[in-house]
Specification:
single chain; 115 residues; mainly beta; 23% strand
């Protein structure tokens, strides 16, 4: 007799995001590995993510999707990581955006006379 997994696992009608945010300060976020990131060339296991209480749920590489990636998967530039963990830790990994210069030109100190 075959016992299917859907007979063993209860899936209550609850939003997954709500289920994953039960613990305060934890949640799901997508992190992008930019080309100049320290993570490029490191395996998920050696990346230090687990030390920061971040678990990689899915690795997206171009059109390839790797659910539950193994620790030996090496990260490449432009990989997208769907992660669960401390939101503050994940926020701290996002590089600061450079401030844009104001586009408004300052007026000269001396008035411009019409000719």
């Amino acid at each position: 007799m075959i016992d299917y997994i859907d007979n063993q696992v209860a899936f209550p009608q609850i939003d997954v995001r709500e289920r994953l945010s039960v613990s305060t300060g934890y949640g799901v976020a997508e992190l992008v590995v930019h080309g100049d990131a320290d993570l490029v060339g490191k395996s998920i296991g050696d990346s230090g993510l687990r030390d920061r209480d971040i678990t990689v749920l899915t690795l997206h590489r171009g059109t390839l999707v790797i659910p539950n990636p193994f620790p030996h998967h090496v990260l490449e530039a432009e990989d997208r990581l769907l992660c669960f963990g401390k939101l503050e830790e994940m926020r701290s990994m996002i590089p600061a955006r450079p401030k844009r210069r104001a586009r408004v030109k300052k007026l000269p100190k001396t008035p411009i006379h019409e000719s």
